[in-house]
Amino acid sequence: MTIKLGLVYGGKSAEHKVSLQTALAVIKALDMSKFAIHPIYITDQGEWIRGNQLEGPVEDVKALQLNGEGTAISPVSLNQELFPAKSQDDDKIDVVFPLLHGPNGEDGTIQGMLELLNIPYVGNGVLASAAGMDKIVMKSLFAQAGLAQANYVSFIKSDWEKAAEASFQKVEDTLGYPCFVKPANLGSSVGISKCNDRDSLIKAFVEAFEYDRKIIIEEAIVGREIEIGVIGNDEPICSVVGEIAPKKEFYDYKAKYEDGDTDLIIPAEVTEEEYEQIREMAIKAFKAIDGSGLVRADFFLTKDGNALINEVNTMPGFTPFSMFPLLWKHTGVEYPALIEQLVQLALDRHEVKQQIKHTF
């Protein structure tokens, strides 16, 4: 039976364009004999627009923006059993695939809405999505789980504004240079700066606080950037590992999504012991945030063979330059099969949830 799949993409986020590219790649990979694909576009102003069922592949992201097409909807209309609509065209979606990156999508907000609507959805739940988005909370959970990671400090904007000099001094005393300044709740390397002195640190604080009220500053680790894919629910499995070899100073937004000017080495050259260490840490991190569906776990691998976890991404990109689908391709899972597996994991998790008692 054909599965009615709602693809939610766009979003009110600085990563809006990234989401469009992810949606385009997923649509091109889906088997339309198995899925009835319904595009649901969230504009950068937060308006929801539902398009007609796709009859064929989409050629570019402009078509996905549904300009002049589609119907403005309330997201609650996605479950017609709870909120019946007048139009029969907006009937119930079987499962939703949130292809959203950043705040207002990857952070648990959409996931919470879908939970309330009792609609199966691909990927992580509310807790894992929120924890995976907030780098400060994430690192606290990793520390509790005993995972090795880089040293870091964090600030909220109001505290920094009251004591800027003390904030800068704390970074210098605790971490030194070089260091990386990042918004706490953003991905795709948006708003990230590498700092080598006080002047660059000041500029980095200002830029990062433009994207979030909380920022995190991490020590620079000398090591290889290693990534691994994780899929599953209660019994997650891992892909081969890959290595990021940016030709620039670090793997920034442009390298990830625009020019492809980065070498992705898959599989990465690691020893069996190093792979096993990374695999075990990735699964431990997945369980620490109560993950489900998928994550991409990012590590630093030092010269002495020790792995430090950097972060997990609960909705990794699916663009042609993205590491996550490439890792699984080299593991033996092609892109269409990967998407189908993620959809099935969503349906399996939803079925388990339906067995939970809600009365006493």
TrEMBL record:
Keywords: ATP-binding, Cell shape, Cell wall biogenesis/degradation, Cytoplasm, Ligase, Magnesium, Manganese, Metal-binding, Nucleotide-binding, Peptidoglycan synthesis. The keyword Methyltransferase does not apply. It is found in: Cytoplasm. Its EC number is 6.3.2.4. It comes from the Bacteria. InterPro entries: ATP-grasp (IPR011761), ATP_grasp_subdomain_1 (IPR013815), D-Ala_lig_Van_CS (IPR000291), D_ala_D_ala (IPR005905), Dala_Dala_lig_C (IPR011095), Dala_Dala_lig_N (IPR011127), PreATP-grasp_dom_sf (IPR016185). Transmembrane segments: none annotated. One of its GO terms (molecular function) is D-alanine-D-alanine ligase activity. Pfam families: Dala_Dala_lig_C (PF07478), Dala_Dala_lig_N (PF01820). It catalyses: 2 D-alanine + ATP = D-alanyl-D-alanine + ADP + phosphate + H(+). It is an enzyme of class 6 (ligase). The keyword Disulfide bond does not apply. Pathway: Cell wall biogenesis; peptidoglycan biosynthesis. Residues 139-344 form the ATP-grasp domain. PANTHER family: D-ALANINE--D-ALANINE LIGASE, D-ALANINE--D-ALANINE LIGASE A. Belongs to the D-alanine--D-alanine ligase family. This is D-alanine--D-alanine ligase. It comes from Metabacillus herbersteinensis. The lineage of its organism: Bacteria, Bacillati, Bacillota, Bacilli, Bacillales.
